TrEMBL record:
Species lineage: Bacteria, Pseudomonadati, Pseudomonadota, Gammaproteobacteria, Vibrionales
Keyword check for DNA damage: no
Protein name, entry field: DUF2878 domain-containing protein
Species this protein is from: Photobacterium kishitanii
Membrane spanning stretches: 16-42, 49-67, 87-105, 112-133, 145-166
UniProt keywords, alphabetically: Membrane, Transmembrane, Transmembrane helix
Length: 175
């Protein structure tokens, strides 16, 4: 029961992190960075996994951004202006938070069958971006249906990559 409560708390914590990132965007960057540092101090082995795993996610979002599949509102604070030609800093922090959570929950994640992780990852990932659209954190210039399906397909590959990386880094105990 205590283990289950731990994972529920981690899941709820990540949902709060997600909300601060997506709804708050640049408003809560300091809090997001503080939460990540706290996570990495407490779960120090999550840091290398998060950095390595996030490179693919951030890179994928960068490609989607430059292909025009996703756009982001311009930051109003000049401090964050350099990110307007990349992807938003809050989205990079969100990737780091997400992959940190995946590492922390790796035992549960690796128990899932691959097909379950692919279906859950693709639907969950696409739904996350769809909710971001509703919260006006992202803009989809193309039709919502096509963009949702496209992002879902991209998340199939993210899910497979994350599963593979979890297996490799868990076996090596290097993370």
């Amino acid at each position: 029961m205590a283990v289950t409560m731990k994972y529920v708390a981690i899941g709820l914590g990540f949902n709060l992190f997600w909300l601060l990132a997506v709804w708050g965007q640049y408003q809560y960057v300091g809090i997001l960075i503080s939460l990540l540092i706290g996570c990495w101090l407490f779960y120090h082995r999550s840091f290398p996994f998060a950095v390595i795993a996030s490179v693919i996610g951030v890179g994928g979002d960068y490609v989607l951004f430059h292909l025009g599949v996703m756009q982001f509102p311009l930051p109003t604070n000049p401090l964050f202006a350099p990110f307007s030609s990349f992807i938003p800093l809050w989205l990079i922090l969100l990737w780091l938070g997400f992959t940190s959570m995946v590492w922390i929950m790796r035992t549960q994640v690796l128990r899932l069958p691959l097909w379950g992780m692919i279906i859950g990852g693709s639907l969950g990932g696409a739904l996350s971006y769809r909710i971001g659209l509703t919260l006006e954190a992202v803009i989809w210039p193309y039709s919502e249906g096509i963009t949702f399906i496209g992002i879902g397909v991209v998340w199939v590959f993210y899910s497979i990559y994350l599963r593979w990386l979890l297996q490799v880094m868990t076996k090596r105990k290097t993370a």
